[in-house]
Structures are given as structure tokens and as C-alpha cells.
Amino acid sequence: MTIGTGTSANTGTSANGGPDAAAWRTRDIVVAAVIGVAFGVAFVAFGVAWRAIEFLGPAQNILYGAWLMPAIVAALIIRKPGAALFAEMVAAGLATLLGSQWGPDTLLSGFVQGAAAELVFAFGMYRRWSFPIVVLASLASAAAAWVHDWVVWYAASSFEAVAVIGVFMAISAIAILPVGSIRLVSALRSAGVLGGFPD
Amino acid sequence: MMVRVDPTDDQLASPLGRVSPLLKLAIAGAWFVGLFLTTEILPALALAGIAVGASLVLGYVPAGTLGRGLAPLWIAALAVGLFNGLFSPLNSDPALHELAIIGPFRLTEPGVIAGVGLASRVLAIAAIGVLFAQTTDATRLVDSLVQQGRVPERFGYGALAAYQAVPRFAEDLSTLRQARRIRGLRSSWHPRLLVGLLVLAIRHADRLALAMDARGFGTGPRSRYRPMHWGLIDLGAGAGAAVVLAIVVVLPRVT
């Protein structure tokens, strides 16, 4: 990064669509990273719960949306290109370092999940943050995760069985993830910690 | 709340600890591709065994640490194995000899073998994960990603700055849980904890970003405190990993 863009990135006040709306301030980077790290820490606890409901079989995936949350939440807060992917990768990287049971495959999961959500927000030119687009991004993220899990974990299963998992993941991505993410962001906003970020 | 115990200095100074983290990730990626190309049991178990052996011998990972890392795994392996075994499309092939009928499920030998194969895959991936996590610390990982992998440095070191706050977040989380308990709320785990955790985390991030900006973070060319160089040990690790992959995955297909 050159001195010029670095300075403008740090002082850029154009949070709402000015010329350097896409440039990341230091605060954007650190807040997005911290969201990823906080979710990574929460994932350690959630991972224990996830194992505890392994006996539910495919229905377990009704909670799958939780794994996709850092991407959606960070994108909703930072609203800059790459926020979804960056936060999800930080969360996945932390989980890998903490010794996730899925090992470095967590990084691959995080990448496809974050990238899929990112793609949808990019289609909205990072200007559209309505409920439908959040649902769409959640669905895309879950779809990418589903394909990944199919190839990696359910490679020997019949399509019907994998499709049932997909249905549960889709329900999670439509009914739980967008509402949960939006409510989380608005709770943070009313707590007053999101001053300086676009509304 | 589990706070991470970093790999010991011993582990980080081991041969595997000195291999570039980026290269270790690349090796893990190549081994994954090898694993994904087969659902057979033997290649996956062989890779798992080699990863465990390498952790012990070349990574100086204590057997107890390794065991604790792999212990919770049997649940995931069992779940994945059962799912694939029960729902294998081979089970509905009438030409195949059936092993058992459990309720609505008909089990055939190839179906069960496929299930065990996928369970072995879980073991292999987790063993590679323990090897990586127990011989890599976050600082070296980011140094390597930025200097050897061309990850943008503001993002790499920004993430590292956030990572340093992990013990603080773990502490925050236990404080928040205690606060719930004091207020007489029964379950101390609740999704609302996430709101409190993130409020504290973002406040911390704001202060951190201010401090980093004050020091001119990302405003000019960055000097290196810990330069990363490719070395002979990387060459050795890469070559060794390629040979292992070739023997384990390619050979059974040729013969």
C-alpha cells in the first residue's frame, strides 16, 4: 500500500458511498478482524454443543447458520468489499489454530462460505443491505457450505440423504441466520459501539 | 472457558515448527485433494498415521497433548461414518450381499466400507489439523502469509492484532457468564452472550485501531522484525510430503 492511499484510507470519512468508500480504514480492518476472532472464540464453545447434538443426524444442521454468522455480521457492519470473506477467514483461521476438530479444512469451509456471501453483497454493489439481500447472501453461503460438506464429509452418501442435510441448512440460512445477524447488529448499534460505521 | 495454550517453545523449535506455515498449509491442501479423490480406508488411515507420527517425532508434540487434541474426534468420526454407511447408495443395490437390516436400513458390505472410509477421512483431516496447530503459532503464521504468501499486510497484521486479544475475550466471556449467574439466570450459556462479547470486543478494537493509526500502521513500507526465508527445511518438508502423498494415494490405484 502506498503512502497516499494509506493516508486517505485512514482518514476517509466517506462511509456512505463517497469516492473511497471501498478503502478500508484501520478501524474497519481491526473491527472486522475482532468480529472474526470473537466468533472464533465463541465457536470453541459452540463446537462442544455441536458435538453434543451430533445424535440428531441431519437435523443438527438446523443450527448450521451459526457457522456462517461472522461473514454476514461483519459485512453488515463494515459494508466494504471483502468484509464477509475476511471475517469468516479470521474466524476459521482462529478455529484452526485453536485445534478445531475439522483441522485446516475449517479454512476451506471458511473460504467458500465467506466467498459465497461476499459474491452476493458484491452483486448489490455493497450498497444494498436490505433484508432480501441478507437472506440471499445467507443462502449462498449455506449452499457453498453444503457443496463443500458433500464433497468432503458425505462423499459416499446417496444424493437424497445429502439433500435432506441441504434442506436443514437452507432452513437455517433463511429462518435463523439473517434475522439473528440483523438483530445482533442492531443490538450492537443500540449499545453504541458502531458509531462511525454506516447505518 | 478454554484459553488456548500455545505450542511450547520446544514444539515451535522442532523441525516441523521451523517449516514455513504457508508451506504446511499448502501440504495440508495437497493432502486434502489426495484424500478427497478416494473414499478408501487405507490411504486415509495411512495419512492419519503419518501425520500423528510426524507430530510426535518431527514436531515434538507430547503424546498427551496429541491425545487430548484427537480425543473429541470419535464423535465426529462416528457420526460421519454412520451417516455415509447408512445412506450409501450401494445399500439399495439388490445384487450386493447384505450384512444386516436395521429398521428401515439395509446394510451392504461396500456401503459399510465406504462409511468406514469417510470416518477414516475425518481422522486424517483432524490429525493433520493437530500437526498444524501444535507446531504453528499465530505470529509466524501471519508473518509467513504476508511475507511468503502475498496476503495484504494491513489485513494480515490487523488480524494478528485482533488475535492477541483472544485471552481477553475468553476472560470477557467468563465475566459475562458470571454476570448472568449473579442476576439469577439459570443457563449460563445463551446466544445473548454474543452481544456482550462483541460490544467489549469492538470497544477494544476501536482503541487498538487508534493506537495502530497513531503509530502509522499501513501508511508506508513496513520493515520486517522477523524476516521469513525459504530454507532447506522447507524443501525437505515439501519433498517428504509429496513422496508420502504419492505413495499413499497414487500407488494403490496403479497396482
Q: Report the uncertain regions of chain A.
A: 1-19
Largest interface: A-B, 67 and 82 residues
How would a crystallographer describe the biggest sheet of chain A? none
Overall mean pLDDT of chain A: 87
- Please give the alpha-carbon distance between the first and last residues of chain A: 28 Å
The assigned structural class of chain B equals mainly alpha
Cα shape of chain A: globular
List SSEs of chain A in N-to-C order: HHHHHHH
Number of strand elements of chain B: 2
Concise description?
The complex is a heterodimer of chains A (199) and B (255). Chain A has 199 residues and is mostly helical.
Written account of the structure:
Chain A is mostly helical and 199 residues long. Chain A has seven helices and no strands. Chain A has helices at 3-11, 26-52, 65-78, 83-97, 105-123, 131-152, 159-191. The model of chain A is unreliable at 1-19 (pLDDT under 50). Chain B has 255 residues and is mainly alpha-helical. Chain B has twelve helices and two strands; from the N terminus they run ααααααββαααααα. A two-stranded antiparallel sheet of chain B has the order 1-2. Chain B is globular, with a radius of gyration of 23 Å. The interface between A and B is large, with 67 and 82 residues.
Q: Which short descriptors sum up this protein?
A:
heterodimer, A: 199 residues, mainly alpha, Arp2/3 complex 21 kDa subunit ARPC3, 70% helix, 0% strand, globular, disordered N terminus, B: 255 residues, two-stranded antiparallel sheet, 12 helices, 2 strands, 68% helix, 4% strand
Topology diagram in text:
The complex is a heterodimer of chains A (199) and B (255).
Chain A lengths: L2 H9 L14 H27 L12 H14 L4 H15 L7 H19 L7 H22 L6 H33 L8
Helix pairs in contact in A: 2-3, 2-4, 3-4, 3-5, 3-6, 3-7, 4-5, 5-6, 6-7
Chain B lengths: L8 H5 L1 H4 L2 H16 L4 H17 L5 H8 L2 H14 L11 E5 L2 E4 H27 L2 H10 L5 H11 L2 H17 L10 H22 L17 H23 L1
Antiparallel strand pairs in B: 1-2
Helix pairs in contact in B: 3-7, 3-12, 4-7, 4-12, 6-7, 8-9, 10-11
